Amino acid sequence: MTSADDSGTADPVGSTESVVDTSSGLSDRATTRSDTIVEAKGVDVFYGEDQALQDISMEIPEKQVTAMIGPSGCGKSTFLRCINRMNDQIDVCRVDGEIEFRGKNIYDDDVDPVVLRRRIGMVFQQPNPFPKSIYDNVAYGLKIQGKTEDMDQKVENALKGAALWDEVKDKLHTSGLDLSGGQQQRLCIARAIAVDPQVILMDEPASALDPIATAQIEDLIEELSRDFTVVIVTHNMQQAARISDKTAVFLTGGELVEFDDTNRIFENPQSQRVEDYITGKFG
Amino acid sequence: MPRNEYQTKLEDLRGDVLYMSEVVAERLRMGLDALAQKDAQLAEEVITGDGEINEMYLELEKDCINLIALQQPVAGDLRFIAASFKIITDLERIADLATNLGQYAKNAQRDVFPDVDIQRLGDVTLEMLDRAMTAYSGDRPQMCYEVAEKDDELDELCEIASEIVVRDLIEGERSNNDEDIPILMKDVSRLLLTIRDLERVGDHAVNIAARTLYMIENNDELIY
């Protein structure tokens, strides 16, 4: 069992870096698309006495898009936050079971959540750029890590990776808050990929955006999956169908009912409960 | 149950496809009767009635497209709509073949090869169509396989019928009168086309069964 209080370690970087960071360089990454990068094994999550997730086991494949769908309160965002230990910040939250990142249990005592979150980044529902310039937003994580060499190039690469460069290259030093909602979200994605993560978690990244901005984010997610593993929580089942390779269906009670190739989930789900949910026969 | 209107539209589509199949089967029966009875008026009814089937087809095609575009169906609903979309095409083609029978009936003046039992072939095709649509109507996968098996029987019957014609031409005692030959050739051609068209009706019935099996069980075993 690992609780939120266990996150502090005597060796905050050492062994964590050595395990979690073994393949920090892109060239060190496994190239087979079907390799598992994150594996949950019997994960239970409790908020105080309430159980939010029950015995979740799943293997998230590398460099693919995995979508998590399900009704409100089914635990899909809770599970997403478990993957980079965001739930550590909630005092009453307790996580049982294991979540392995490249074979290392991220809830082991020797794992530093800060280092972990460099490897497993997060993009939230509401775009949340810092009240800084576009440039500084992207450079922020790199500066914290002391990776200031070739900063201009790194910022440009991240903005290009987030399909934002062409729109902002002439105003890099204006405030990130002056961008449109869709641009702000892509700026947040640029900020996330600037520190060279291996997994990007996205919690409803397009739900606050208009259809055009949503389409841009969806295109971007497909692009990102060439270099990164993307795990996305979405309420929009059609979005999951459009952009994901794998889909996990969580249903009420915090249960992972089905996890399979997306085309199989949407053409021929094995579970009647999943069929009823995705066809709208129950809400 | 949420999405009541959507569920009603799905049921409406199923009912409309079944109604179309009943009209198509009736036209096929009429075409066969027109052939048997040399009834030019009945034949004309089949031919002129094809426009109604075409309109029905276009209407149902539009319904399927609207359901896909507006309701974003998935899983069993998606398979049902996709199968229906394909099935109405097969039904429309069967109606075209029934129209062909009407054309043949209008031109047929005599039974040149009485040993060829066109009505039996027709009965088999009607039975296959009926079974395929019963499977579609009531989610009965076993019936889909039965339709496919029946098609083997139909193919064999059609082959035997064609052989009778060819054998009779080779071995039979026919008039050597040159004036009779063009008429005989037309009769032979019409009869062989009739056999071929009924064999094709059977193929369309198998297509319907195959799509129905996919619809019920996500099983594409019969689709080829």
From TrEMBL, chain A:
One Gene Ontology cellular component term attached to this UniProt record is: membrane
Gene Ontology BP annotations: phosphate ion transmembrane transport
Alphabetized SMART domains for the sequence = AAA
Query: Which UniProt keywords are given for this protein, alphabetically ordered?
Result: ATP-binding, Cell membrane, Membrane, Nucleotide-binding, Transport
What sequence ranges are listed for the domain ABC transporter? 32-278
Q: Which Gene3D superfamilies match?
A: P-loop containing nucleotide triphosphate hydrolases
Region Disordered, residue ranges:
1-31
Matches recorded under InterPro entries? AAA+_ATPase (IPR003593), ABC_transporter-like_ATP-bd (IPR003439), ABC_transporter-like_CS (IPR017871), P-loop_NTPase (IPR027417), PstB-like (IPR005670)
Q: Which GO terms describe its molecular function?
A: ATP binding; ATP hydrolysis activity; phosphate transmembrane transporter activity
* Name used for this protein in its record: Phosphate ABC transporter ATP-binding protein PstB
Q: What is the lineage of its organism?
A: Archaea, Methanobacteriati, Methanobacteriota, Stenosarchaea group, Halobacteria
Gene of origin?
Answer: pstB
TrEMBL record, chain B:
One Pfam annotation reads PhoU
Q: What is this protein called?
A: Phosphate-specific transport system accessory protein PhoU
* Domain PhoU: start-end pairs: 20-104, 118-211
Localization per record:
Cytoplasm
Q: Which InterPro entries match?
A: PhoU, PhoU-like_sf, PhoU_dom
Q: Which UniProt keywords are present, listed alphabetically?
A: Cytoplasm, Phosphate transport, Transport
- Highest classification ranks of the organism: Archaea, Methanobacteriati, Methanobacteriota, Stenosarchaea group, Halobacteria
Annotated gene: phoU
GO annotation, cellular component aspect: cytoplasm
User: Which organism is this entry from?
Assistant: Natronocalculus amylovorans
GO BP terms: namely:
intracellular phosphate ion homeostasis; negative regulation of phosphate metabolic process; phosphate ion transport
The similarity comment for this entry is:
Belongs to the PhoU family.
The record's subunit annotation is: Homodimer.
Q: Which domain of life is it from?
A: Archaea
Q: Carries keyword Cytoplasm?
A: yes
Purpose of the protein: Plays a role in the regulation of phosphate uptake.
